[in-house]
Amino acid sequence: NAGVTQTPKFQVLKTGQSMTLQCAQDMNHNSMYWYRQDPGMGLRLIYYSASEGTTDKGEVPNGYNVSRLNKREFSLRLESAAPSQTSVYFCASSVSLAGADTQYFGPGTRLTVL
Amino acid sequence: AQSVAQPEDQVNVAEGNPLTVKCTYSVSGNPYLFWYVQYPNRGLQFLLKYITGDNLVKGSYGFEAEFNKSQTSFHLKKPSALVSDSALYFCAVILFNRDDKIIFGKGTRLHILP
Prior knowledge:
heterodimer, A: 114 residues, 0% helix, B: 12 strands, globular
């Protein structure tokens, strides 16, 4: 099992460009998440998907959109990138949204917006 | 609102000595508590969690944590530190409530000195 995979690993964008971050999991998990990690800020939830066909906003959703393509895949789109979106982005999955369920994280995408 | 605090940005410990990484939380109910570790250029990895039951929880790589309800703390400990334990450690809290999402602390960087 690969667990949670993310592509690309690194990306540099110019302000105003768009891009999609891809995430896939092979653990048959129902719930998936997108976080961003900034120095001194910990992880902040951008969007999550409780199950296939549903998505909800997290703590910092502005400037992002998501698509739960199927049970395995959950993508994050930046429509018009801004320097404030320079960050490391992590995708995660869990069996369900239940608080006791452990989240499993991908390796991350390091995004720089110039 | 629930919150979690990691009061130390960095902890330095000599190899072979015991280590403690502190975490305190604030929730209006019974919490689920987690510790995750992040090695350089990697995603977060689950270490251990407290759901209910014994206050002392044992996890991966020889780590353990003690849930202290009166002090609202969940400190991570290891009896004898290894250089390979050097990493970024995150404490996280969630209530047993589907409307609440897991909240991560800002992280504590642990340096084990050879």
